[in-house]
Amino acid sequence: MKVFTKKSPKEEKNPDWAPWRQKMHEIIFEHYTFWGKEFDVILLWAIFLSIVAVMLESVESIRVKHGELLRFIEWGFTIAFTLEYIARILSVRKPIYYITSFYGIVDLLAILPTYLSIFFAGGQYLMVIRTFRLLRVFRILKLARFLGESRLLQAALKASRYKITVFFGAVVIIVTVMGTLMYLVEGPENGFKSIPVSVYWAIVTLTTVGYGDIAPQTFLGQALASIIMLLGYAIIAVPTGIVTSEITQASMEKRKNNVCDHCSAEGHDIDAKYCRNCGAKFNNPEYPA
Amino acid sequence: MKVFTKKSPKEEKNPDWAPWRQKMHEIIFEHYTFWGKEFDVILLWAIFLSIVAVMLESVESIRVKHGELLRFIEWGFTIAFTLEYIARILSVRKPIYYITSFYGIVDLLAILPTYLSIFFAGGQYLMVIRTFRLLRVFRILKLARFLGESRLLQAALKASRYKITVFFGAVVIIVTVMGTLMYLVEGPENGFKSIPVSVYWAIVTLTTVGYGDIAPQTFLGQALASIIMLLGYAIIAVPTGIVTSEITQASMEKRKNNVCDHCSAEGHDIDAKYCRNCGAKFNNPEYPA
Amino acid sequence: MKVFTKKSPKEEKNPDWAPWRQKMHEIIFEHYTFWGKEFDVILLWAIFLSIVAVMLESVESIRVKHGELLRFIEWGFTIAFTLEYIARILSVRKPIYYITSFYGIVDLLAILPTYLSIFFAGGQYLMVIRTFRLLRVFRILKLARFLGESRLLQAALKASRYKITVFFGAVVIIVTVMGTLMYLVEGPENGFKSIPVSVYWAIVTLTTVGYGDIAPQTFLGQALASIIMLLGYAIIAVPTGIVTSEITQASMEKRKNNVCDHCSAEGHDIDAKYCRNCGAKFNNPEYPA
Amino acid sequence: MKVFTKKSPKEEKNPDWAPWRQKMHEIIFEHYTFWGKEFDVILLWAIFLSIVAVMLESVESIRVKHGELLRFIEWGFTIAFTLEYIARILSVRKPIYYITSFYGIVDLLAILPTYLSIFFAGGQYLMVIRTFRLLRVFRILKLARFLGESRLLQAALKASRYKITVFFGAVVIIVTVMGTLMYLVEGPENGFKSIPVSVYWAIVTLTTVGYGDIAPQTFLGQALASIIMLLGYAIIAVPTGIVTSEITQASMEKRKNNVCDHCSAEGHDIDAKYCRNCGAKFNNPEYPA
Predict the structure, then answer these.
(1) For B125-144, what is each residue's pLDDT tens digit?
(2) How large is the ipTM?
(3) What are the chain B neighbours of A218 within 8 Å (beta carbons)?
(4) Any idea which architecture D14-142 has in CATH?
(5) Scanning every residue of chain C, which has its alpha carbon at the shortest distance from the alpha carbon of B214?
């Protein structure tokens, strides 16, 4: 009854490969060897720094001063990420699976904009090119790869998906009806220019964001707005209740399912290191000692 | 012990009817035949598109350009919904039950405003007519018909209704007392023009919306406002706690009540497709395979 | 094991009293006889209407037009509430207990301001007198008397009082430290005029109210503000978790404690009308059939 | 099985010390003797008053009038806290442990700025010195010492730390991607001056703070903002669910662990004073009778 040592099928290596390819696969996709870990940490920093560079370039005063340097750094990261992309394709058994996977597409989108900026370099298109280049910020999505703790949350959210859909359906109906009523009550002269704008205002109010760029002026409008606010204040309880209920149940079941390999005792805490019944050490790579 | 195959009484057909009426009833009110499903999907899209048309018409720039087209679309949908309304009356056993039901009234309100706009067409009443026409946005309420997943939420909310009433009573008392105090402290010269306006401000603050169109200027006013904010920040916990508690209990009971028809084993997940004890397939139309 | 028919000691009548006093006590303090119920409903409406009158008087345009009428209504309600206050004193065994109780003081505060406005009628003090009169809005606190469902909530909040104190202590520390840091970073020139004002801004931000009358302008200020916002967004989970946990446990225990008078079966729902074991009818006046 | 009378090791005294040192240790670090309690209460007030003095000094109008007095009070508190700091060092067995502990550093930081203001007194550095002096507001962190009820909360938060990290990772990704999209959609001309500013706006919106100093103007921008708001409104449920689940479980386990010294009966409430089985009085110093 091996619980903690299960190996996910996608991590299996191809036994017919050359040793360097097996090694490369190990470094890029495995996380438990020394170099596998180092690779992940370095990649994480590279992604983070490349995003910081893109962000700094968007600041007017910094672009004027250090524009050359930032573009140089940008090209450095783009070439590094391109080499990484090629290495990933070489080190998986079925490259087409990787290329068409979510992370394969994100990895490609993270390097494309810089290359595209060469071909679309003519005068008036400069702003459009910047648009493409800015898309590289999606590199941050790669970060998600390093977050492996999210399975319990995902299970809880998946179990709640029907109830959450019903909840959002109700929210959409409320903001549409309320937005229309506010358009009728306040009208374009008080900032409620059209029904879509009024619905936007209703969302701003129901979610308790409240920018204040549009605010009701008439007595009836303020009374209606109060109802929306109290509604928004109260119904936040519904998704919270749904998710809490699911997390509590998922967490209780996970605890029940943590079984000792040695004596089959159940109910260990998720980060337990020894069996509470026989004292056998757990082989649990996710929670390092 | 049939649990999943129970049929609700309102879906029963009248055996004395002509076959076309039975067929029509099946298409309009049943959801499990091919055409019954198609009808629902088409109706959903029609409602959605008609609401989009109403919304677009309220945007100044679009109304000037495409006003004629939008009014044509509007009349098309109105006639289609009128035919649907008549078909619904014809295909139920007791039409009066349908007409006086919540959805019967909503269906009628969804088509009336367009017809009313013919009779009240004289010059200066145009704006008033538009008001009636905008009511058609209530068509969106029809969407609720397609949300069948909401029973657990409804049970949880119903069980909490006394506690939620107490909570809202407390909120009303807090905003009235606090609004009055702020009117005394800040006064009309700082934007707190009257007690009703101050109570409105207290609601904006307690629900953490915070438009900022009215904001305390004096030291005492800011201190009082801080208390309201911290109160609002803390007591949101109360409805959340109530609803979470009810959902957890309702969800646990629902899980307990899913009984296998074959071996009477209890405790199946709400979306289980096979009995976890004997492997018998569940006949559960709510969760399609 | 009588559970639902227990009588609270404060509702007991004095057997030595004259019948009219016993009757008066029954009408004013009991809720289960016909006139006891009627009295409560009428009082509720009187309180509500008197508060509406005070609110309307604070609106400039209404005061100018209907000032005389509103002052007449105000005096009517004040006299009625005075008679009610005297009747309450006459119909309780130990008047001093009532007078010094929370509701005794509120009842007195609800009538005093109008009388005080006679003696302090000289020219320049008029505004101060209005201040006293506005205190009558506290009459709304009387409403709390009619909310009897709040015991479960009170038990849950009482059980959480230590944890909630710790939570508010942490909030006070966070807003003081963060407010001071923001004063140092942004300074008086960006609206953070003094530490108290900066602490007020930190409360506005942490509780996610966000008026926007004061907002950080520098990069460092916006970074710090982001930390406060994310903190505020996350730690709202703490009071919610505390209260939810207590309500769930209190609610489970309450359910366990609902015992049938006839067969002693436990675990009935709070609004059950019949015993789930022997079918005996419950005598539960709080949940009317 | 002594549960309530356990003594934490850091509170043990050194038996080889002189009696006056033992007494001093008792007063400063113990809380159950008369003078130990008095010392804590006086220290609490001193910290509170010194922070109020710093705050008042930052208010322009008060500094002009009472600047001399406030500086005198400041020096008084600084000298008192210095003596307290020396007394603490003298009365612990290993002073280096205290000095390098969190509270040791905070205690030092709370007195240093006032002394530093002597040496850096030259003209143009005055503002910088004030910066140091304002750091004394960190004295408020000392308050945390008096909050001993927070262990359950800490345990719950510690158990949730992995899940909360995943949650904050997701929030960071969302605000970065959404902030960049908004920069592309709205651009510098609508207030979204750079990507960092747009990310700041995304945090303001996702956390439902909503200052309104930056607000989307275009239709596409308002649609995107609506998505961020609804996301922020919904995902608040996740940390709440995590913390609630942990608190419920920690709270249930704590209840289970309160064992009677006399008869070993389990399951006592956390603030029970007598065993519910044998009636033995609990020796529980944390909850005074």
Answers:
(1) 444 444 444 544 444 545 44
(2) 0.75
(3) none
(4) Up-down Bundle (1.20)
(5) C211
